[in-house]
Structures are given as structure tokens and as C-alpha cells.
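Exercise 7.
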Amino acid sequence: MSKVCSICQRGRMTGNKVSHSNRKARRVWSVNLQKVRIKGTQGQSYVCTNCMKSGRVERA
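Solution. The predicted structure, written as C-alpha cells, is:
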């Protein structure tokens, strides 16, 4: 599964996990992807919940 939205092309974001003692360690935030069937297309694709909520995708 690719971790990229098929509508807005949003993917993983990287940054630092910062502890209480201010030590840094690299970490990753993944996009909230859902497998949906889009109206007017064939098959299913992965779409982020932000696109679904904003109305950029019409589900079949």
C-alpha cells in the first residue's frame, strides 16, 4: 500500500520526537488514508480523510 493520497498527494511527514529532557529522535507521521470507491472511476483508491471531509471526493 502506498502511503500517499491519490487526490492531494499528501504523504508522510517527518520531524522530531522531543522528550521532557529535550532530547530529539526522528519520527514519522502518517496520513489517515481510507480505501474508498470513487464515483465515476473503476476500482478503489486510497484517499485521505481530509479530502473526504472537504468534499473533494464523491464516494460511489
